[in-house]
Design goal:
This protein has helices at 2-29, 120-129, 158-168, 178-191, 196-214, 346-356; strands at residues 62-65, 71-74, 222-229, 240-243, 248-254, 263-268, 274-277, 284-289, 295-302, 309-315, 319-327, 365-370, 374-379, 382-387, 390-393, 398-401, 407-412, 416-421, 424-431. The protein has 433 residues and is an alpha+beta fold. The strands form four sheets. The chain has an eight-stranded antiparallel β-sheet, with helices on one face. A five-stranded mixed β-sheet has the order 3-11-5-8-7. Strands 4-10-9-6 form a four-stranded mixed β-sheet, with no helix packed on it. It is extended, with a radius of gyration of 64 Å.
Length: 433
């Protein structure tokens, strides 16, 4: 047993010698290691039993040598950066500390001096070398591009355009002979015997004939708007409505207050002479005469009125009624505000009808009204007022209203009138007595 221990010990010593010699030979073959940086020792990991490492002074700056023999101070990395493995002392159980291999040592740090930034002169020199204009020079003013004006060709005359069309026609395969030219001229003479001048003269004559046919043989009638007061008493003559061929006349039926009175039905005496249009519910009839000279009548039934209204129709007069406001005595179904006051006699109604149409009473004097748009006429001890405003004071004797809202008042003489203007009282002054 002791012999075995001696033999094992000898064998172990021999193996240690071999390993040590091989490691020494390898270390001799390696190039010498570069000196370690000054801060490498501070980054060695301490052994667990050694306790916290002492505080190391800040590493000095590393001075690098450049290729141009100039030096530059490079700050050392902070102490908290771990050192590379090659810089840490490697402890081994066999042979003690082992130097790091030369291939893992950091190479020397070299820096080139920074080159100066290019100047404006260098940039201009480069531009001149490359056949360019320096940027610092003001840009040369380039001439404006030529203005292209498209001018249309001169318009061809009528004869020139005809010649162009003749020349653009394809040539004939059959040669032109004197006989074909004679036949062509004969065909033109048969189909178009008139010359261009004769054709123009013919059209002028036709135009003059059409114009003469459109002219009325007599003076056209004068258009007017009138007002009719219907008298439903027995033995009275019905009023006449003047029509004309080619003119439309409208009949507007209203009651004593000027409110629309709807039409229930109508009938015409000569339907071949007059055409009538009605929408079936309103108070308006449209009449037009077909013949230049005719007469007849029309009967209208109003809603709620037991007595029909009869009107005479006459055409071919010097005056044509464009619009006729037919005032029917009574209160129609569409009346909302009943009139206040007594009914005037027939003679007074005729005066008020004329005032509604803008015709002053015969023998009256026109007065001047200040304060609103109105007309006033003085006749005897009475005064007639035509306005769209509502009379408040003095009280009127009689009044009539047209469908368009015009009022005619009969009232005693006065120099001041109070009316309602857009819901506000207003004073009208009468001058010219």
């Amino acid at each position: 047993m002791a012999n075995l221990l001696r033999m094992a010990t000898c064998f172990g010593l021999m193996m240690l010698g071999v390993v040590h010699s091989s490691v020494a030979q390898q270390s001799s073959d390696l190039p010498p290691a570069s000196p370690e940086p000054a801060y490498a020792a501070s980054q060695i990991s301490p052994s667990p039993s050694a306790g916290p490492p002492p505080a190391s002074p800040p590493p000095p700056n590393v001075t690098a040598t450049t290729s141009s023999s100039s030096t530059q101070s490079i700050p050392a990395p902070p102490s908290n950066i771990p050192a590379p493995v090659s810089q840490v002392e490697n402890t081994s159980r066999i042979g003690g500390p082992t130097p790091p291999p030369a291939s893992l040592s950091p190479p020397p740090i070299t820096f080139s001096p920074p080159s100066a930034p290019p100047t404006v002169g260098d940039f201009n020199a480069w531009l001149q070398t490359n056949n360019s204009t320096p940027k610092s020079m003001p840009p040369t003013k380039q001439p404006p591009p030529p203005r292209i004006v498209y001018q249309g060709h001169k318009p061809l005359t009528y004869e020139e355009s005809q010649q162009v069309m003749l020349e653009s026609a394809p040539p004939s395969r059959i040669p032109m002979t004197p006989d074909s030219a004679i036949a062509f001229n004969m065909m033109l003479q048969q189909n178009m015997p008139l010359s261009p001048q004769q054709i123009v003269q013919l059209r002028q004559q036709i135009d003059m004939s059409q114009r003469a046919a459109a002219v009325a043989p007599v003076v056209p009638p004068k258009p007017v708007s009138s007002t009719l007061m219907i008298n439903l008493a027995p033995g009275t003559t019905p009023p006449a409505v003047r029509l004309a061929q080619g003119y439309v006349s409208s009949l507007v039926f209203v009651d004593s207050t000027g409110s629309p009175w709807p039409i229930a039905a109508f009938d015409i005496g000569n339907p071949k002479a007059v055409t009538i249009q009605w929408d079936g519910k309103s108070n308006i009839l449209l009449l037009q005469s077909i013949l230049p000279y005719t007469d007849g009548d029309i009967v209208i039934r109003l809603v709620g009125l037991p007595t029909p209204v009869t009107l005479e129709l006459v055409s071919g007069q010097r005056v044509v009624d464009y619009r006729v406001d037919v005032h029917v005595p009574g209160i129609g179904p569409n009346t909302k505000d009943l009139p206040i006051g007594s009914t005037l006699p027939d003679s007074a109604n005729q005066l008020l009808l004329g005032i509604l149409d803008g015709i002053p009473p015969p023998g009256s004097k026109t007065m001047r009204v200040i304060g609103a748009d109105a007309q006033a006429f003085s006749m005897g001890e009475k005064m007639y007022l035509r306005t769209r405003l509502t009379l408040l004071s003095p009280g009127w004797i009689g009044t009539m209203v047209s469908p368009d809202g015009m009022h005619a008042y009969e009232l005693p003489k006065t120099s001041s009138i109070l009316v309602s203007k857009y819901g506000e009282p207003a004073e009208l002054r009468i001058e010219g007595w």
